[in-house]
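REVIEWER CHECKLIST
Item 1: Sequence provided? yes
Item 2: Single chain? yes
Item 3: Sequence as submitted:
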Amino acid sequence: MAVAPLDLLDLDTLLTDEERDIRALSRRVADDRVRPYVAEWFESGATPVRDLALEFGKLGLLGMHLTGYGCAGASAVCYGLACMELEAADSGVRSLVSVQGSLAMYAIWKYGSEEQKQRWLPGMAAGELLGCFGLTEPDHGSDPANMATRARRDGADWVLTGGKMWITNAPLADVAVIWARSPEGVIGFAVPTDTPGFSAREIKHKMSLRASSTGEITLDEVRLPADAQLPSAAGLKAPLSCLTEARFGIIWGALGAARDCLSTALDYAGSREQFGRPIAGFQLTQAKLADMALELQKGFLLALHLGRLRDSTGALRPEQVSAGKLNNVREAIKIARQCRTILGGNGISGEYPIMRHAANLESVLTYEGTSEIHQLVIGEKLTGLSAFAG
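Item 4: Structure as written out by the authors:
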């Protein structure tokens, strides 16, 4: 009897009842609110982000691993399983949840004042307010230490000048967490997006993550009161810790995209006949399926180990998260490409999700640390020597 990809090693037995319930809830909302429409969203480049945020907020999926302020306080593994189910529908939809909860909300939750937390977090947890995270710049992607955005004091105020690029949720956000260089070093701000001088332009003509809203932020002499600064964020370590937080969700999310590709390929191979029988019965097809299923199992075990480690210790070291993202995204995109070959010409059709997943994973491979950056993080930990310039 045939089994589903993640049932090969009975991996469900490693999950608790609560974890399986969270997974089922996340899968149900993905099946009901995303799958029937996402191919159209991808093709049109328009997604009802605010409607989805409200839906996710009602179910406690936004900032779900944070505590207080309307957040669910779920475990790391529960959060990871939710990311896996959402990305099985589409990477862009999972990005909405990751950026909202693990970047924008986490930055305010971790580094903000009590007043900032009370002002922003309950509405963000409910999906009534959207947030974005402004770190990446047009000329400083993998090198945030050299960011060009500047913050200067003017009396009691701060004035921000610069720009950010490839910022998920930016065109729709109510609050932007902006990182800037000041005489004191790198500092962060919670910036209401209706502040004069703040603008966000939707980035069009994307070939990937088309079911996600992505923008370019311009900061033209944006004047902020002193209490807009995140008081506990000092130095580049603060925004990098937020990236570590978000990368954890990617470790799980990429597995969802890979699993959906593999499930689609299995179903297709069982019904597609060539030379008088299903192609699932051919040795070369089975070899592909077996190798992909094996990598999916290994990726799940890696993600689960990191989740259990985080739940027991409270945190993961950056190199541990880098190992998870490097492996799982790299293997997920290989699985997507291989599954496309099983579907042949149909593999490029929007009637099937595989090409959409493959295109999305090209972005996931790059954002929040390219594969090369993660290799260098791991290499530095193994050798004790930094290969980063400067």
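Item 5: Key structural point noted by reviewer: Residues 6 and 215 are 36 Å apart (CA to CA).
Item 6: Recommendation: ____
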